[in-house]
């Protein structure tokens, strides 16, 4: 996410992880799994797991493996949860020795796909690693039909750390979403400023449906943003 992420990663949980929301997400995931799963175990793969925000609740029900491309995030996750397997891997190019009963790709990280072909490749890898009858939950980073630009702000205090965040989210002419990120972190009477931009691919509902089906997965249900954070495709392998 950040060019200097090794510096700012120590504040990631403060800036982005909202435990109450994550717990609600996981309760919904458990309900979905219990409703639709027909595989034989409870092995879960958390794709783009970050610092383990969801994994901290998932591990109470599932045998969790998390993958992420960020060394800094994985270092934090491994420090927090020694009982969870965290692996450095690219969500569009990974090969694990296990198959899973449930795979989750949450909070729009699939938007890091540079184009439709890479989106499809990532979903094909999901198929490869998902057991027959297992469940795949995908939350898109919005869609072309639902995207809205905007300004996001947040301020928090935790112990002796004060933090302010402002992000401008806009659609560019090439169809990509540009996120202009500004963070102020105050600690020990010093203020540090961090800035970065991030590019996210915006796919249409039709493109998601087409890619999911072409990858060999079946859509069981489409949840909107009132039913699941950022909305979700509930899929299975048949």
TrEMBL record:
Listed CDD domains: AdoMet_MTases (cd02440)
The domain of life is Bacteria
Keyword flag Protease: no
Domain Methyltransferase as annotated: residue spans: 45-134
Q: Which UniProt keywords apply?
A: Transferase
This protein's record includes keyword Lyase: no
Q: Which Pfam families match?
A: Methyltransf_25
Which SUPFAM superfamilies does this one have? Answer: S-adenosyl-L-methionine-dependent methyltransferases
The name on file for this protein is Methyltransferase domain-containing protein
Q: Which organism is it from?
A: Clostridium oceanicum
């Amino acid at each position: 996410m950040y060019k200097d992420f090794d510096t700012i990663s120590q504040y990631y949980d403060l800036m982005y992880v909202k435990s109450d929301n994550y717990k609600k997400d996981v309760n919904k995931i458990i309900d979905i799994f219990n409703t639709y799963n027909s595989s034989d175990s409870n092995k879960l793969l958390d794709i783009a797991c970050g610092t383990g925000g969801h994994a901290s609740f998932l591990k109470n029900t599932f045998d969790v493996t998390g993958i992420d491309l960020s060394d800094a995030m994985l270092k934090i996750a491994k420090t927090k949860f020694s009982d969870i397997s965290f692996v450095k891997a690219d969500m569009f190019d990974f090969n694990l020795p296990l198959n899973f009963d449930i795979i989750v790709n949450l909070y729009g990280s699939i938007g890091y796909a540079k184009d439709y072909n890479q989106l499809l490749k990532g979903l094909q890898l999901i198929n490869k690693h998902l057991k027959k009858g297992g469940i795949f939950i995908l939350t898109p980073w919005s869609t072309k039909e639902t995207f809205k630009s905007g300004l996001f702000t947040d301020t928090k205090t935790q112990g002796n750390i004060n933090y302010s965040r402002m992000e401008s989210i806009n659609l560019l002419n090439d169809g990509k979403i540009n996120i202009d990120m500004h963070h102020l972190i105050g600690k020990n009477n010093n203020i540090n400023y961090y800035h970065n931009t991030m590019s996210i691919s915006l796919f249409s509902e039709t493109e998601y449906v087409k890619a999911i089906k072409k990858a060999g997965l079946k859509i069981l249900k489409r949840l909107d943003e009132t039913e699941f954070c950022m909305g979700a495709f509930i899929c299975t392998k048949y």
